[in-house]
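As noted in the main text, all predictions were made from sequence alone. Below is one such record, for Cobyrinate a,c-diamide synthase.
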Amino acid sequence: MKNIMIAGTASGVGKTTISLGIMSALSKRGINVAPFKVGPDYIDPKFHKFVTGNPSYNLDSWLLDEDTVKYLFKKNMKDKDVGVIEGVMGLYDGFGVEKDMGSSAHISKILKTPVILVIDGKGISLSSSAIVLGYQMYDKEVEIKGIIINRVSGERHYNILKTVIERDVGIPCLGYLPSNLNISLKSRHLGLIPANEVIDLQEKSDELAKIIEETIDLDEILKVAETNITENNKIDNTINGKKFGLRIGIFEDEAFSFYYQDNIDLMKKIGVEFISISPLKDEVLPLELDGLYIGGGFPEIFTNELEKNISFRQDLLRRLQEGLPAYAECGGLMYLTKSITDLEGKKYDMVGFFETDSLMTKRLQRFGYVEVEYNEKISIRAHEFHRSKIQDNSNIEYVYNVQKKKEGKKNKEWKCGLKKKNVIAGYPHIHFYSNNDFLYNMLDHWEKVKTFV
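Prediction:
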């Protein structure tokens, strides 16, 4: 099972560009690439899927225990030639100050996956050796098998850095990208602009793959790619006994696209049939539905379009009021409130199912890993990342007790998870494999109220 991790010394060093380029170049060689992303990111995996044609999966050692990480990795590697894992932040950066928790390094150790370290070569020469040596020495259980140098001034500059790194540290340099690379992906407030909004993405992908073939030794990367993890079937055994005959509508368009692929796969595995729905384009909901899965995304970017689709909003409101179950996260929660107010104070009408309003803010309201207690009996780990808030009032019923911890101690605590009729909506993004009971409890309830309205 051949796998490699592309990790960086820090955020912004170029690991996303290099990861995408390697995935694209390998795919163009006819290699079936399994893409992965360390951490809770939703946007990078969409780019992975675009360049490889395969779904990309998140690997997160804070949300999931080690056995689950191994299980999901092996499951999602099935029938693939090579796995390429894009790291998160710097190689050793994870949750708080804990050394092995949520970092790229931790995932590499769990999966025994070799690491290709991306460093920034701009403005340095011998100092590059000190950087690489520090990363090598910090945790010798992490197998750094190669170096890629980004933003070098040219081949001569790269050869200088290659000479000193290989001489002083003994790790081979496998290539570079030039500083004048005219390929960039634009960002907005929650990260990169999603792949489905990048008009010239195919051209950029093709050009990047061509450059990677010229400046990075892909053959050597394939030689060092390997992993050896043990089988673990206990998770399969807990899943196979569950079956739900439910038809669930899933919101999928430019406004709503934040879903863990493993969540969708798990729901399909236990019998859920998905029907794709676009609140931007559809006039009404499909008639035969047992529930709705409304993910996060960028409803605040598409407020005008969402507001104008009055027929869909009215139909959705009626169906929810009649008892159609729904589960919504972050942007999905915002859409179900009465309105979204932008930073200029302009208010846009939304569905109006929950008696509150969503307000965009200039700074992040919540960011990071949280622990969610649902209905006072189910504990599950999650992640929050949003620049909006909802107005609190007495008409809201909450079913989430959310805690944020530092160094194992409770740091903050608040209420979330709005509940009304058969609808639950909250800001936390939940990975169902963190605790399958959360999903099973919800779907059990949906089957009990199963209705076609």
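The longest helix spans residues 201-215. The mean pLDDT is 92. These features were considered when defining construct boundaries for the mutagenesis experiments described in Section 2.9.
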